[in-house]
Specification:
alpha+beta, three-stranded antiparallel beta sheet, 11 strands, 31% helix
Length: 324
């Protein structure tokens, strides 16, 4: 997993879950496994399509083309639609209380903004048409940047990062190159099932999913609750669970335990395969900012946001400027 971002969104949260378990009292688990690539035949050096502004409804919701996301919409049901709105004063007020030294609280705050400012519509979905929890975790940061751009549209509030001494460039979501899953893994992607389908020579079929916010949330809460009561559970399976469970709505402790028991019959080679696919997808995320230098050459720089994640929803204009 790359360690390029000081905003900790993509990698440090995962790393923190892999620290000494006694220090954090939370078991090892990967709650933010990302995925996606230059799908649908898009060349690796081609930027994702920009978000197209469409007609807003009376509440200010604005449609975001699903194919513009880092996952290119590959892991959502066909016809899924995403809508966002600008964050309001009460949400900025709550965001301003963020302690970005607490990674678990930071994760909750990111989801707080997503919950209130994004919604997903899934045609024909039996669960009331979709939820923000159905958003894939790897798409979360892109969506947060989209919400930020609506919230702070003025030039004075642009999010900027330094690329060299005394040189800063504005950060826009379309400039970020998020992920590239290798072809050796993408060839197992099923357009019908919207996941990776691994058919073994033994006849066993293992499905691996790109985790949603809902899956990661459920598993995190499960781990915390078990630790609080000092109850035993399979901590090894927890590492892989986000990619082995497709629907958070059907999860219960009983259903989860059945998944664990089912996996106990897997062979060493089967677990090696699952581990390889998981690690390959995790390593495929390497968010970098692409920009054109004064000589007209394309350059890349790590996505290091000054001020950390808290800067995402902070105005950079003079706070005293609104005074009369």
């Amino acid at each position: 997993m790359p360690k390029n971002t000081n905003d900790k969104i993509f990698s440090q949260y995962v790393d923190s879950m892999e620290q000494n378990q006694e220090e954090r009292n939370i078991p090892q688990f990967d709650g933010t496994v990302p995925a996606g690539m230059n799908p649908n035949g898009i060349p690796r050096n081609t930027r994702q399509p920009e978000m197209v502004e469409e007609k807003k409804d009376h509440m200010g919701w604005q449609k975001v083309p699903i194919e513009s996301l880092p996952t290119a919409g590959l892991y959502y049901p066909d016809g899924t639609e995403l809508f966002i709105r600008a964050a309001q004063g009460k949400e900025i007020k709550h965001w301003s209380t963020l302690d970005d030294s607490d990674l678990s609280s930071m994760d909750d705050m990111l989801n707080y903004i997503i919950e209130r400012c994004a919604k997903l519509r899934i045609p024909g979905n039996e669960y009331m048409g979709g939820s923000w929890k159905d958003i894939k975790d790897i798409d979360r940061f892109y969506i947060l940047l989209s919400i930020r751009e609506l919230t702070f549209p003025d030039a004075d509030d642009e999010l900027k990062i330094p690329v060299k001494e005394n040189v800063e460039i504005p950060v826009r979501k379309e400039m970020i190159d998020f992920i590239h899953i290798p072809d050796e893994i993408m060839k197992y992607y099923s357009d019908d099932e919207r996941c990776f389908v691994l058919k073994l020579k033994t006849g066993r079929v293992i499905r691996m999913y790109i985790p949603s916010i809902g899956i990661n949330e459920w598993i995190k809460r499960y781990a915390i609750s078990k630790n609080q009561i000092r109850a035993g559970y399979d901590q090894d399976y927890l590492v892989f669970a986000p990619m082995l469970i497709g629907d958070y709505r059907k999860l219960s402790e009983r259903a989860y335990n059945e998944k664990v028991l089912e996996s106990e019959s897997w062979s060493g080679k089967e677990w090696s395969l699952v581990s390889y696919v998981r690690d390959t997808i995790a390593d495929a995320v390497d968010p970098k900012l692409k920009y054109i230098d004064p000589d007209g050459q394309e350059q890349t720089t790590p996505l290091n946001i000054p001020g950390g994640v808290k800067s995402l929803f902070r105005s950079f204009s003079d706070p005293l400027s609104i005074l009369g």
